[in-house]
Design a protein that fits this description.
78 residues, 0% strand
């Protein structure tokens, strides 16, 4: 593909397709953030044990699973 062909392909893309791709990329970044958050909560629970530590871990896991679910829904319906 030449540079002119690549340029024509980019120009003729639908603006909504570009928005959808950007939204999905942002969801992937957020999944990465949720995974890091989950890891940080696990490390925190090892250092600082409290009665509510399992509850915090549960919230972190639910948060990660929820954002993965939302990502899958976005893949299906976007």
């Amino acid at each position: 593909m030449t540079i002119q062909g690549f340029y024509n392909t980019i120009i003729h893309l639908s603006p909504w397709l570009i928005v959808k791709i950007i939204i999905l990329i942002l969801f992937l970044f957020y999944i990465f953030f949720a995974a890091i958050l989950n890891r940080q909560v696990t490390l925190m629970n090892h250092v600082l044990e409290a009665k509510f530590s399992p509850l915090i871990k549960l919230f972190a896991i639910i948060h990660l699973l929820f954002i993965i679910f939302i990502f899958v829904i976005a893949l299906i319906f976007l």
